[in-house]
Design a protein that fits this description.
This protein is mainly alpha-helical. It is built from 9 helices and no strands. It has one domain.
Length: about 240
């Protein structure tokens, strides 16, 4: 049982491992920031369309997928309006901060079903399915943690705060994994809804914020190629691990 919890913890720690080197990047240019934004967008689109959505369809059906994606999209829409309303009262430059918070929430939602998947996999078959799922998700968490922290630093978040915010998304995954281990039978039916919900939330952030933001400073062409490279990176990692 200790090995099961250790494997779940390692998956979440991979996010922190990726975040550490990103803390030391400073004075990021507009070109670099747009490139990172677009690359992150590509990673998130691939994670949604090549990972979360197919996994949802394997576990359930198109109806569940549609409901989950729409719920994720609507939840982020409402959340964005709430954050924008509060930000407009407290900051004259609230837009970037709102985008940062939405991205954090999106990644947190993304990590929630991932953690449940790791926990359920370990509880179902710890030495085969659990290890494979944990390794696959942990490996993709390294670049996700790096890009998340770098993105936050590029939005004038201090490196320490950026690291802590990213680590928080990893903690969410760890807690979800533990819940999945303990309550496997109760969460099996909810996992596909969570996967689709996370996909909808991520696609909302990509199309609403990351892509428009990456095209805002005249770097449309390098941002486009960066998006494609991010997409291919995530697809390659997912295919290699299957």
């Amino acid at each position: 049982m200790d090995e099961i919890y250790l494997g779940s913890a390692v998956t979440a720690v991979c996010t922190v491992m990726g975040a550490i080197p990103a803390m030391f990047f400073k004075n990021i240019s507009h070109h670099s920031k747009d490139t990172v934004l677009a690359y992150t967008a590509g990673i998130m689109v691939a994670a949604s369309t090549y990972g979360l959505i197919p996994s949802t369809l394997k576990l359930s059906n198109v109806f569940v997928l549609i409901i989950g994606i729409l719920l994720g999209t609507m939840a982020l829409t409402v959340l964005e309006k709430c954050i924008s309303y509060v930000g407009s009262k407290h900051s004259t430059n609230s837009l970037d901060q709102n985008q940062v918070f939405l991205l954090l929430i999106s990644m947190g939602l993304h990590n929630l079903p991932e953690g449940l998947s790791v926990g359920v996999s370990y509880a179902s078959n710890p030495y085969e399915l659990g290890s494979i799922v944990s390794f696959a998700i942990g490996l993709q968490n390294v670049p996700e943690g790096f890009l998340m922290t770098l993105l936050l630093v590029s939005h004038n978040i201090t490196p320490i705060r950026a690291f802590l915010y990213t680590a928080l998304t990893g903690l969410i995954e760890l807690l979800a994994s533990i819940i999945g281990i303990i309550f496997t039978g109760s969460f099996i039916t909810l996992v596909p809804y969570g996967l689709a919900f996370a996909a909808g939330a991520m696609l909302f952030v990509v199309y609403k914020d990351l892509i428009p933001e990456s095209h805002g400073d005249g770097n449309e062409r390098p941002a486009t190629f960066s998006f494609i490279f991010g997409l291919l990176t995530m697809i390659s990692l997912t295919s290699w691990l299957r």
